[in-house]
Amino acid sequence: FWKILAFNQTHVEWFGCSLHDTIQPGFSFLVGVALPYSIASRIAKGARFAELFGHALWRSLVLVALGVFLRSMDHSMTYFTFEDTLSQIGFGYPFLFLLGFYSSQAGWGKRAWATLALVLVGYWLVWAIYPAAPASFDWTSVGVSPEWNAQH
After folding, report:
1. Structure letter (DSSP) for residue 78
2. Burial (CB count within 10 angstroms: exposed 0-12, middle 13-18, buried 19+), residue 56
3. DSSP per residue over 108-128, as a string?
């Protein structure tokens, strides 16, 4: 029991998946599920696109800033790292808002599939052009000190 619990409370190093690795995708999924309901409710109350999009941009900024703040709490300087859950949701939120807003319009079906294909091909292309470094990569060869690498 304790081995299973310990495994699911840490990230898997290079392959596999634990419960801990599903936190960020889970929160992103919840935002994606809730957003269309929020947009529909605000439109029903008379909100216009500019107001809604401005609110989405503000929320995005707050999420990214909160992520940076929480990452920097135990350090003497600000850590502008964006791999935490809040920052990633914040960076994706404006795009998700646009998808949610325009998907409610008539004739969106074909555009939805085209958007999905564009996102998937674009994501693949980024990783094909800029692949992740292998586990055996020598980070000192690109100027990363062993002390920094040991802390991160």
Report:
1. -
2. buried
3. -HHHHHHHHHHHHHHHHHHHH
Say whether both 59 and 24 belong to one domain. yes
Q: Rounded CA gap, 19 and 148, in Å?
A: 27
CA distance linking residue 65 with residue 59, whole number of Å: 10
User: Chain-centre distance of CA 60, in angstroms?
Assistant: 11
Same domain for 53 and 41: yes
For residues 32 and 13, what is the distance between their CA atoms, to the nearest angstrom?
28
Number of domains in the chain: 2
- pLDDT tens track of the chain, all 152 residues? 888 888 777 776 766 777 878 888 899 899 989 998 999 999 999 999 999 999 999 999 999 999 999 989 988 888 888 888 899 999 999 999 998 898 877 778 788 888 889 999 999 999 999 988 887 888 889 888 888 877 77
Q: d(Cα 100, Cα 31) in Å, to the nearest integer?
A: 11
- Distance from C-alpha of 139 to C-alpha of 150, rounded to nearest angstrom: 11
